[in-house]
Amino acid sequence: MQIFVKSVAGTSVVDVNAATSMEELRAMVAAAQGVDAERVSLVTDKLLEGTVAECGILAEQTINVVLAVDGGKKKKKKKKVHKGPKKPTHRHKNVPMRVLKFYKVEGDGEGTEYKVTHDRIECPHPDCGAGVFMAVHKDRQTCGKCSLTYVFQKK
């Protein structure tokens, strides 16, 4: 009788009789297809031992040959344990009437005139121009527009 063998390499026809063992069938498939037949299955049942008649293979039936493949899903990684607390994020602090920090007004208005002076220096960089003041920190003065920085010298 003839049976059809379907594998990755394609479909081929093998002549067997009812007394042929599964080991002989695997050898015939390996010779016909050029691949090692590691697992021979009929629809969903695995055919491991016995003869062709015992496994229930009929004439002109299709047998699937499946090859073993390495691989699969990898092992799940462990979650990292962080040792220290999170770094606090910068929070913007709103200062009411911020423009009063840039100028100083002197004089009482009675008998003397008001005198307005800059409390903070303007940035001397040519890109900034007038009206751009430098921020005052405890150890430096910095321009927020052009990043010009003056560091205070400790004596």
From TrEMBL:
Q: Annotated Gene Ontology MF terms?
A: structural constituent of ribosome
Query: What are the coiled-coil residue ranges?
Result: none
- In this protein, which residues make up the domain named Ubiquitin-like? 1-72
Q: Does the keyword Transport apply?
A: no
> What domain of life does the UniProt record list for this protein's source?
Eukaryota
**GO:BP terms for this protein?**
translation
> Which SMART domains would you find in this protein's record?
Ribosomal_S27 (SM01402), UBQ (SM00213)
Q: What are the entry keywords?
A: Isopeptide bond, Ribonucleoprotein, Ribosomal protein, Zinc
InterPro entries for the chain: Ribosomal_eS31, Ribosomal_eS31_euk-type_sf, Ribosomal_zn-bd, Ubiquitin-like_dom, Ubiquitin-like_domsf
Which Gene Ontology terms of cellular component type are present? Answer: ribonucleoprotein complex; ribosome
One of its Pfam families is Ribosomal_S27
Q: Which family does it belong to?
A: In the C-terminal section; belongs to the eukaryotic ribosomal protein eS31 family.
Can you say what this protein is called? Ubiquitin-ribosomal protein eL40 fusion protein
